[in-house]
Amino acid sequence: MIHHDLKKKTSRIIYLHGSDDVWSTLGLIEPRTKDSVSIVIKGGSHCADVYPSRSSDPPQLKKARITVAFYFKKMVVGRIMFCTDKR
What is the distance between the alpha carbons of residues 80 and 38, in angstroms, rounded to a whole number? Predict the structure, then answer.
C-alpha cells in the first residue's frame, strides 16, 4: 500500500512487515505515533503472518504473532477502559 498522506493523524496501528516481503519497502518501518508499533519478521514473506499457525512456522513468526496479540489487546482494552458513555 502506498501511503498518499503520511501526515494524517492516526493512532494505535500495528505495522507488520516481513524482511523478505517485496512490498516491505513501501511500508512504514518506524511508527508515526507513540501508541503505534512496528514489527519486522526476520525472514518473513508477504502475508506470512495472516496464514493459520502451524507447528512448522519459524520461531520469529510465532514470536511476531504473540507480539501482535499483546499490542492488539493493549490497544483495544486500553481504549475501552478510557471510553465514557456521553449519552
Answer: 22
Q: Within 10 A of 86 (CB to CB), how many other CB atoms are there?
A: 4
Which distant-in-sequence residues (6+ apart) come within 8 Å of 57 by Cβ? none
Q: How far apart are CA 18 and CA 64, in angstroms?
A: 10
CA distance 73 to 8: 24
pTM: 0.72
pLDDT score of 33 = 83
- The closest of 25, 33, 11, 16 to 78, measured between CA atoms, is 11
Task: Report residue 79's pLDDT band, with 50, 70 and 90 as the boundaries.
Answer: low
Cα 65 to chain centroid, rounded: 9
CB atoms within 10 A of CB 78: 12
